[in-house]
Amino acid sequence: MEDQAAPAPSGSDGTIRVVAAAILYGGALLLVRKRGTSAFMLPGGKAEPGEHATETLTRELAEELGCGLTHAGVALLGRFVAPAANEPGRTVHATVYRGMLDGVPRIGAEIAQMLWYDLDRVPSDGTGPDDTVSVPLAPLLTRHVLPALRRQAGRA
């Protein structure tokens, strides 16, 4: 994996800069929901001063899921900008890597819930009668990450 500098620190201008992992297993994407929030998102987070992107991912995945990424096959999925899911008026600038976990994920740190989201599922508007259909997703996922992963998998 190419180790790039992590994004610049989050700013007072409303930007939230993060590094995140798109982890796929059996056609499903690992999503997390942090405590006190409603939308599911990718695991990852903000860089500490001086951290490179891979260091941020390693630290965040260890804190949030108790495991790491296998470094073989980790690749940049893209750099995306979207409205923040849980902080109105703020914007997320995300560097997203695709990879596989080294270990079995378990809920840790600030994570309240974890789920495997089927890539073939159509995002719901939240009005469906079945909770398995009505999973609130962060705009970063619906606008950028899911379409990019589906294109790569030939499901677009």
Automatic annotation (TrEMBL):
Domain of life: Bacteria
TM spans (from-to): 14-32
Keyword annotations of the record: Hydrolase, Membrane, Transmembrane, Transmembrane helix
Gene Ontology molecular function terms on file: hydrolase activity
InterPro entries: NUDIX_hydrolase-like_dom_sf (IPR015797), NUDIX_hydrolase_CS (IPR020084), NUDIX_hydrolase_dom (IPR000086)
Coiled-coil annotated residue ranges, if any: none
Names of required cofactors: Mg(2+)
Keyword 4Fe-4S assigned: no
Keyword Transmembrane: yes
Gene3D superfamilies referenced in this protein's UniProt entry, alphabetically: Nucleoside Triphosphate Pyrophosphohydrolase
Signal peptide: none
Domain named Nudix hydrolase: residues: 14-139
Protein name: NUDIX domain-containing protein
Organism: Nguyenibacter vanlangensis
